[in-house]
């Protein structure tokens, strides 16, 4: 798996490169927004399978990394992107998920010190999944959701949606909540109904559900 890694802090970049290489990844590392965009749009042998991108990169140190990744996805729809951020920023998560295509993730930088979780997130995003950091979800859960469709979900449905936002499969959700996969499927169907997300061959309904969750 070929990974484009965008991180301007040398020690962190070096550590991530080593971690990815130890797990069989080929890494192309960059340290600024313009270089990131060029690397993500490479059509040659260095074309990426997934991008791991720090939100804040030179030259602006604002959201240069995120914007370069979003621009690359506009030009190359479905390009897998895993965003790293120091803080929980709902706006970043919303922008990343707005297209509804999947193959996106949002992790806090603290998570990259947990090697297995980080590599699992990279692989799930590369495979087309959606991964949200548990701390992001926990922070959002603290917000009032008395209004809107999210407020109509039962506590168990909220539990299922929270794990769905982390990118978990039905089997993983069932294991985590100690319920059957058929029960997860029923809760998931109910979530889609309550959030008014109908069947579609084109849209990733899980991504749309997570997006509704983040926007509440």
From TrEMBL:
PROSITE patterns: HTH_LUXR_2, RESPONSE_REGULATORY. The modification 4-aspartylphosphate is found at residue 54. Residues 2-124 form the Response regulatory domain. One of its GO terms (molecular function) is DNA binding. The keyword DNA-binding applies. Residues 146-216 form the HTH luxR-type domain. One of its GO terms (biological process) is phosphorelay signal transduction system. InterPro entries: CheY-like_superfamily, NreC/VraR/RcsB-like_REC, Sig_transdc_resp-reg_C-effctor, Sig_transdc_resp-reg_receiver, Tscrpt_reg_LuxR_C, WalR-like. The keyword Transcription regulation applies. Pfam families: GerE, Response_reg. PANTHER family: TRANSCRIPTIONAL REGULATORY PROTEIN NARL-RELATED (PTHR43214:SF24), TWO-COMPONENT RESPONSE REGULATOR (PTHR43214). This is DNA-binding response regulator. It comes from Streptomyces glebosus.
